[in-house]
Amino acid sequence: MKNSKASMVIYEPNKYLKDGFFKVWRYMFNDTLASMGLGYRLFIRDFTAKYKQSLFGFLWVVFLPLFTVSVFVGMNKSGILSIKDTNIPYTVFVLFGVTIWSLFTGLISAIAGTVGQSSGFITKINFPKIALVQSPTLVSLVDFSVRFVLLCIVMIIMNTFPNSLFFLLPVFLLPIILLAMGVGMFFAVIGAVFKDIPNFINMFLSVAMFFMPIVYYMPESGIIYQLNMYNPVYYLIDASRSLFFEGQIVNTGGFILSSFFSVCVFLAGWRFYHVSIARIVEKV
Amino acid sequence: MNDSIVIRADNVSKKFCRTIKHIMTYGAIDITRDFFGIKSNTEKLRDGEFGAVNDVSFELKKGETLGIIGHNGSGKSTMLKMLNGIYMPDKGRIEINGRVGALIEVGAGFHPMLTGRENIYINGAILGMSKKEIDEKYDEIVEFADIGNFINSPVRHYSSGMFVRLGMAIAVSLQPEILLIDEVLSVGDISFQNKSMRRLAEIREKANAVVFVSHNMEHIRALCQKVLVLHKGRSIFYGDPYETINKYNALSRDIILKGAKDSDSLLHKQGRQSSGQIEILDFGILDISGRKADRLRVGEDIVFYVNFLSNVNIEEPLIGVTVVDEKNTICMWHINADKKIKFAPILQAVKYNFEIRLLAPAILPGVYNFHFTLRDEKIYETYERIFNIESFVIEGNAHNRGIIACDSAWKLDII
């Protein structure tokens, strides 16, 4: 054999310890690159399967934000909520918040469920398991783009226009995506063993929005203020909104710290996923 | 590592948890340890764990085919999954030299909602093929699967035969250097099985090594140079196929016999249809030297006896003795009336010893059972009918195809 050294694979216990801390990062990176094609295939699969048997197809993606927005706008109009002093129309304000929030939650719950859903074949076929994360990530990003188109349509109707720095939005969304992916990968592993985790996440995320300044402004004081002082998700969503509409970030320090935190969570979640997935395969 | 060695397994062990509770507890502990880089003592069995594979070693050189055989739960599939890298060994070391392709379960990963065409691309990608490779092999796959227009229908509308044919077609389109196959040759009808066998033979020609798990000894004999027998996770025999398969067959017979003996009392209750008038005092099998035995050799006389006591008079005793094999095929059925043998009436409250000597029966190695019946021919009364009263093994190395041992003379002439 020509390059027998290169193609020799060794399986033994505690392999990650023998490989050492830094080598594992390299393997993680190589795995990710190698599984791009498969990740894309799985994405096509999940995507087609999702919309194949649905009458309204993509409309489902925009139903939820539209519904949420109409509830909040309705409550605001009827005086139950009293959010008046937004610089942009309240409808656009809420829709933007909900769109970003659903990107965040969609990523977490899609990634968290991925290992459990694939239990049928992860025990039968050996492939780079990171592809199971790539596929739901892509699905969530596509869902987000559809919702973003809805946002643009609503903005045109409401005669609202973004700031000239709007093209920086993807950069500001990156920390949110990384944070969600990190959390998602962490729970993907845990959730495959503890089946109640995905249920818990979905319940938690559906309630969490009301405790964060997403459809309202951060209050000056009180319990919501106390809670969100240390909430990176708030800083990230708030920064992307103020950049998009006002071209500035109110709390730069908070945003930078939160972004740093997001990167750490992403790397930790990724590594956690990588080193423990082999253990999970034998336990699902 | 010697260049010609393609697979080396060195004292490989794997353990699993018995209960969901242990899976969850140990799962949490193990992944926490792994994440923080704390070394786990994976060699020790914790409470609630069992060894699925224990200390298995073997080497496979270039061009060789290894067959793994064993009873259900002996660790064959676990071993294969470790070779494939799906499971990490808990002890020992596996070295693999070359690109591995595995057929562990046909059609794993198929999405029921998607068409055959879409599934070919997805499954191919999961098995490690690039889009270009699949594009090139697409026609070949469709032709091999032979499912016609169904290729554009969702897989969930397929018959089970079409499902496995498509899965198999994708799997055999791989061109791996090392091929791992788990009991997949038995899918489809005979013509599809033959086609799969031919295709595998082609893959084998090009592959460096093949590891093959099967229950079909004919396939093992035909394909393998080396055979590994696993029993309760341990490698008990390893070597030349002919010898190993004979040992494996002997082991199977022992296990079946032990199973039959262990459940004897149970079988008695289930298999006994008694009038309640007969008391069975003793029964058994004697070998040629007159000793009680349950292991006999091909071509030896077999003596079967029953001691009993009757509570009634039986005017014209009609006694039947039957020998059946594992599959309940009747191999011999003797009734005294057939041979015009008349026994004196059986008197009540007297102990009798009944004995039948089967003269050098030509039955092949295997596990057999005696059935025993006692009737009164005069009044058509069945007093006793006991199925599986006693089991025995015929030892020997002859291939147990069929049930009758018979010498043969062969000829192949031009006419």
Calculate the terminal CA-CA distance of chain B, rounded to whole Å: 57 Å
| CATH fold-level assignment of the domain at 263-395 in chain B | Coagulation Factor XIII, Chain A, domain 1
Question: Which outline of chain B best applies?
Answer: elongated
List unreliable stretches of 5+ residues of chain A: 1-6
Helix content of chain B: 25-40%
- Structure summary, number of beta strands of chain A: 1
CATH class of the domain at 263-395 in chain B: Mainly Beta
Span of the ends, CA to CA of chain A? 37 Å
**Cα Rg of chain A:** 21 Å
Oligomeric assembly: heterodimer
**Structural class assignment of chain A:** mainly alpha
Listing every helix as H and every strand as E from the N terminus to the C terminus, the arrangement of chain A reads: HEHHHHHHHHHHHH
Radius of gyration of chain B: 28 Å
Low-confidence stretches of chain B: none
Q: Structural class of the helix and strand makeup of chain B?
A: alpha/beta
Task: Please give the CATH architecture of the domain at 263-395 in chain B.
Answer: Distorted Sandwich
Biggest sheet descriptor of chain B? 6 strands, mixed
- The amount of beta strand of chain B, in percent, is 25-35%
CATH H-level superfamily title of the domain at 263-395 in chain B? abc- transporter (atp binding component) like domain
The side-by-side strand order for the widest beta sheet of chain B comes to 5-6-7-3-8-9
- Helical element count of chain B? 9
What is the element layout, followed by pairings?
The complex is a heterodimer of chains A (284) and B (415).
Chain A: H1 4-7, E1 8-11, H2 15-19, H3 21-34, H4 36-52, H5 59-77, H6 90-117, H7 119-122, H8 131-157, H9 169-193, H10 196-208, H11 223-229, H12 232-246, H13 252-281
Helix pairs in contact in A: 4-8, 5-6, 6-8, 6-9, 6-10, 9-12, 9-13, 12-13
Chain B: E1 5-17, H1 20-36, E2 49-61, E3 64-70, H2 76-84, E4 91-97, E5 100-103, H3 116-126, H4 131-145, H5 160-172, E6 178-182, H6 190-206, E7 209-213, H7 217-223, E8 226-231, E9 234-239, H8 241-262, H9 264-271, E10 272-274, E11 278-286, E12 295-297, E13 302-310, E14 317-325, E15 330-335, E16 351-358, E17 366-376, E18 381-395
Parallel strand pairs in B: 3-7, 3-8, 5-6, 6-7, 12-18
Antiparallel strand pairs in B: 1-2, 1-4, 8-9, 10-18, 11-13, 13-16, 14-15, 14-17, 17-18
Helix pairs in contact in B: 3-4, 3-5, 4-5, 5-6, 8-9
